Amino acid sequence: MSPIGVPGRPRVVWVRPVSESFPDALQDGAVDLDLEAARIQHAAYVAALADTGAQVVEVAGDDAHPDAVFIEDTVVLLGRTAVCTRPGAPSRRGEVAAVAQALAPWCHVVELGGAAATLDGGDVLRAGRHLLVGCSSRSNEAGVLALTQHAGAAGLDVHPVPVRRGLHLKSAVSLAAEGLALVDADAVDPEAIEAVGIEVIEVDEAMGANVLWLGDRTLVSAAAPRTAEVLRARGLRVETVVYDALHAADGGLTCCSVRLAHPGSWCT
Predict the structure, then answer these.
(1) Catalytic, out of 168, 256, 262, 267
(2) Residue 266 Cα to chain centre, angstroms
(3) Residue 15 CA neighbour count, 13 Å, CB half
(4) pLDDT tens digits along 140-163
(5) Catalytic-role residue among 107, 255, 256, 267
(6) Residue 97: which residues within 8 A CB-CB, separation 6 or more?
(7) Domains, the chain
(8) Are 84 and 72 spatial neighbours (Cβ–Cβ below 8 Å)?
(9) pLDDT per residue over 179-224, tens digit each?
(10) Is 84 part of the annotated catalytic residue set?
């Protein structure tokens, strides 16, 4: 298989800078958020994405929205169709329009639909023809149903997954390689992931369940060293990134980018 055909390897990635208002970002904890550290760590993250050979597109910053750096929550890519979400946090809904405009030259942009629907992109994990969609505090049943209609048109199967703890599905489940998922079993039932033919490794580190698979490599937070070693032992190419300033705002490695795959391939 040529490198272009490797699942997980992005062709284009969209990112958004850390807002001046980032210290006011939503978070479950009550810690002070470090703007400068977040910007330094985000720059290193973007450099790691660029190193894959993907074209990096920066969406204009938005200081009116502290959470704008977490761009993944605003859109779900289904092939070349970009489904604009309706974030579960009302304060984040103003982030969507600028992202949709940035994706328009590359994708067919559509609205999620459903007046009662809420959906965050961080609750949607693609694994081949399967879409695992978290039922969480941010994404409701109406949102899952609305996305299911778009997914059916793209030939994808939707599998709702209850999220028992944490912000999003991807906080608790992510792909480390094709057919291999890392799972926080306290937050998501591993059997729901195994049911679609994915091997599960249960992790015991708070930041270990959210990694970013980029086809020929997997990004792992420096806050999850044991997870990194487990993946290296499986023969995977692992790159670690320092990310604690973004973790403090409930951010994960997946949520700071939107990833478009090469034709005939797919990204998580």
Answers:
(1) 168
(2) 13
(3) 20
(4) 999 999 999 999 999 999 999 999
(5) 255
(6) none
(7) 6-261 (3.75.10.10)
(8) no
(9) 999 999 999 999 999 999 999 999 999 899 999 999 999 999 999 9
(10) no
Residue with tokens 């409930």: 250
* 17: exposed, middle or buried (Cβ count in 10 Å: 0-12, 13-18, 19+): buried
Can you list the positions of beta strands (E) in 166-241?
Answer: 173-177, 180-183, 199-202, 212-213, 218-221, 238-241
Q: Coil, strand or helix: which one is 54?
A: coil
User: Hey, what are 190's tokens?
Assistant: 């591993």
Beta-strand relationship, 180-183 and 75-78: unpaired
Residue 267 annotated to the active site:
no
List strands edge to edge, sheet with 180-183: 173-177, 180-183, 199-202
> What's the pLDDT at 138?
97
Contact in structure between 189 and 162 (CB atoms under 8 Å): yes
Q: Where are the alpha helices (DSSP H) in 58-207?
A: 96-103, 141-153, 169-172, 190-194
pTM: 0.96
Main-chain phi, psi angles of 57, to 5 degrees: -115, 120
Three-class HEC string of 146-174: HHHHHHHHCCCEEEEEECCCCCCHHHHEE
